[in-house]
Write a structure and sequence with these properties.
Blueprint (H helix, E strand, L loop, with lengths): L19 H12 L2 H4 L7 H10 L4 H16 L36 H9 L2 H8 L2 E6 L2 E7 L1 H4 L4 E3 L1 H7 L1 H7 L10 H9 L3 E6 L9 E6 L6 E2 L2 E6 L4 E9 L7 E3 L2 E6 L4 E10 L3 E4 L1 E6 L4 E10 L2 E4 L2 E4 L5 E10 L4 E4 L2 E4 L5 E10 L4 E10 L7 E10 L5 E10 L5 E10 L2 H8 L5 H17 L4 H15 L5
Parallel strand pairs: 1-5, 4-7, 5-8, 6-9, 7-10, 8-11, 9-12, 10-13, 11-14, 12-15, 13-16, 14-17, 15-18, 16-19, 17-20, 18-21, 19-21, 20-22, 21-23, 22-24
Antiparallel strand pairs: 1-2, 3-4
Helix pairs in contact: 3-4, 4-10, 8-9, 11-12, 12-13
């Protein structure tokens, strides 16, 4: 999220084109900080024990980490989706403690770290329109705050490391019960080395109008970030959470394997919005899942840019009668990128409904894939679902694939699926240029119209930022 002032934007640090050399110089100092000198590459039991000891965790969490490590060491890489064999897991730094202090005032954040978040516009956004903010740098949350008026309603909004100390029983009740370490290799890895993240608890019938936000910055060479987002939205409650992510480009592979768990109780409503703008060095292998109870509603709104490989499929499990879910997403695959994204919806109860709208854009030889799962269980009567996948190709070198999987085990279901792929129309470009636009402006206008159904669901500042990212990705796409 960025202000209109003349300052760097997150996309300046990840595009690989705009200000790349200046960016590398600007962040060189931060990457030579003492915290990186004391960190190491690779993963073993000693590191897992060190992470747990540094955080003074309860014994059950250490056992969880060690069991997850065992799973990670024995599980194979995913056999479906993008090929991950080029990812050297021994070259990743799994834990780097950037600061010993978690500030509640921006002036108390270390200067080199604060300058990063100021460039990203986070402090200004907090002042303008947010109920609370968390900011994570590498493996640790360096800043966290919540408006007093919101806290007075019983809302808990903490760094998950802090929440584990303050509310151990509440965290233990939900932690990795929705996303189990056995789900896949990178869920197991996350369970072993997770650090930082967000814990959000909204009490019964509490409704928050202004969004809460967390921003995750992976700043060092070859870094891995494994934040854990855990959210419990109690019965009749309502809230909106926004997550932003970015990283600079260093020419060395990095890894993001975060985890999001959301529990939406009966009659509650929750929206999770994210704009992920990783560098083209990054493997973005994130896992997100929500359990949605009776008459509750879950919304996922997301944009994915950057990263050399993304595997991301937010999942809604509709396990209460009358539960509903909406999934809206856009992915942009540029040169050297593979965006493998989509959605999963499991209808586990009767009279549930869902809608999935996913859009992808490919240019410069980039590859975009929609990969989705829709499952209706045998006991789920009268379910309604609609899946739309739209792909836009900006040149002849790029590629798009649609890989939908539908398991319909109850004949009372109403299911609709539509997939469309098209190219940037020369006729549309000609029409717009005849009205005075340049070729690039005409192409950007068409692309922005294509993604408008997703962008309009984002808060204004994020919508502006997503349009800026599109503009940067579109540079040189026509003519």
């Amino acid at each position: 999220m960025v202000s209109n002032k003349k300052q760097p934007r997150p996309t300046d640090f990840v595009s690989g084109r705009a200000k790349q050399s200046t960016t590398a110089q600007a962040w060189e100092t931060a990457n030579q900080s003492d915290y990186m000198k004391t960190s190491r590459q690779g993963l073993d039991e000693d590191l897992v024990r060190q992470i747990s000891a540094d955080k003074n965790e309860p014994e059950w969490m250490l056992k969880h980490r060690l069991k997850s490590l065992e799973l990670f060491q024995t599980m194979p890489l995913p056999s479906w989706g993008p090929n991950l064999n080029n990812l050297n897991l021994d070259k990743i730094t799994y834990y780097a403690k950037a600061s010993d202090l978690q500030a509640t005032d921006w002036k108390d954040v270390p200067a080199d770290i604060k300058s990063t978040f100021e460039a990203l516009g986070i402090p200004e956004a907090e002042t303008k329109f947010l109920s609370g903010v968390g900011a994570q740098y590498e493996s640790t949350v360096v800043y966290h705050s919540l408006k007093k008026s919101i806290a007075a309603q019983g809302v808990i909004f903490e760094d998950l490391d802090v929440a584990l100390q303050k509310y151990p029983d509440l965290v233990k009740k939900y932690f990795m019960k929705c996303v189990e370490p056995s789900l896949h290799k990178f869920a197991a890895l996350h369970g072993a080395v997770w650090s930082g993240g967000t814990f959000l608890y909204i009490p019964k019938n509490v409704k928050i109008d202004q969004p809460l936000q967390a921003y995750f910055r992976m700043n060092a060479r070859g870094m891995g970030q494994f934040e854990h987002t855990l959210m419990v939205i109690e019965e009749g409650a309502q809230a909106h959470y926004i997550e932003g992510c970015s990283a600079p480009r260093w020419g060395i592979d990095s890894l993001h394997a975060g985890c999001v768990e959301i529990y939406v109780k009966a009659n509650a409503r929750f929206r999770y919005s994210s704009v992920e703008s990783w560098s083209k060095d990054a493997y973005n292998l994130n896992t997100k899942r929500a359990l949605v109870e009776s008459n509750a509603h879950m919304e996922w709104v997301g944009g994915n840019f950057g990263s050399q490989v993304t595997m991301l499929y937010p999942c809604s499990i509709l396990r209460g009668e009358g539960a509903t879910a909406d999934h809206l997403g856009v992915a942009f695959a540029n040169t050297g990128q593979l965006q493998d994204t989509g959605a999963k919806v499991i209808h586990a109860a009767s009279n549930t409904s869902s809608k999935v709208v996913m859009k992808s854009i490919s240019r410069g030889g980039g590859i975009s894939v929609y990969r989705g799962l829709l499952e209706i269980l045998p006991n789920a009567e009268n379910c309604i679902t609609n899946v739309e996948c739209d792909a836009l190709l900006l040149d002849d070198q790029s590629r798009t694939d649609t890989v939908p999987l539908m398991k319909i085990n109850n004949q009372s279901a109403t299911v609709a699926h539509e997939a469309k792929a098209g190219r940037l129309s020369a006729e549309d470009i000609f029409y717009l240029t005849s009205r005075g636009l340049s070729n690039e402006d005409a192409a950007s206008l068409i692309v922005n119209g294509f993604i408008d159904p997703i962008v309009k669901e984002l808060p204004l500042e994020y919508a502006i930022e997503m349009n800026r990212m599109i503009e940067l990705e579109m540079e040189g796409s026509v003519g």
